[in-house]
Amino acid sequence: ARAERRTRVRSAAFRFSARRLNGPSAWSTTSNVTAMVRGEAIRNALVAVENVAGRTGRAAVEAALPREVRTRALAVAPREQYPLAILGEIHRAIESALGQGSLELNRKVGAELARLDFPGVYRAVLWTLSYEDVLRRLEEAWRQLSTSGAVRWRVIESGHAVGTVADVVDFHPAMWATL
After folding, report:
1. Are 19 and 179 in contact (CB under 8 A)?
2. Which tens digits make up the pLDDT trace of 94-130?
3. C-alpha–C-alpha distance, residues 118 and 90, integer Å
């Protein structure tokens, strides 16, 4: 049963779409709402870049960040809340400094970031839950990671899910590529 569950989870396909809200698009920064994220997510994003692209890749991403964003990103406290826009700038920097106009590296960094964010006990808990249970609880997990948006599922089937993350501010295409 354990091997069967592992196969089901790894073969699952996720498809998210951004819903228009608060301006031109879901990744608009013109909203009067400031989405927040824990400093740990910002720190782990830079670690994930280094794990995927090496030290020179991380240095290139850090150099591509605006100076005030770089200063804040390098000094975050893991449990404090910071504007989600900082994480967004990191993903823009990945795309511009390393991605050569493609979002493929953002996807790889997103996969590595998931591995960094779910170590130890979370992995053990995930083994005990079905794929469908994990997806149904994703809305609560999303609220722990971001202060804006809601996960809504249209279809949850074995090995397949179609959902929307709606009411999100400060996300842009490079960030969505990491999901």
Report:
1. no
2. 999 998 878 889 889 988 988 887 765 566 666 777 7
3. 20
d(CA 24, CA 26): 7
Q: Indicate the residue type of 94.
A: I
Q: Identify which of 74-78, 102-106, 124-128, 132-136 has the greatest average pLDDT.
A: 74-78
Cα separation of 24 and 19, whole Å? 10
Whole-number Å distance between alpha carbons of 170 and 28: 5
pLDDT single digits (tens) 84-101: 889 999 999 999 999 887
In the block, which residue shows the tokens 């280094």? 50
Q: Which residue has the tokens 């698009």?
A: 25
Can you tell me which residue has the tokens 């006990």? 121
- Residue of 132, 138, 136, 139 whose CA lies nearest to 158: 132
Please state, as a whole number, how many other Cβ atoms lie within 10 Å of the Cβ of residue 38: 21
DSSP characters over 44-112? HHHHHHHHHHHHHHHHHHHHHS-HHHHHHHTT--TTSEEEHHHHHHHHHHHHHHTSTT-SHHHHHHHHH
Distance, in Å, from the CA atom of 14 to the CA atom of 49, rounded to the nearest integer, reads 22
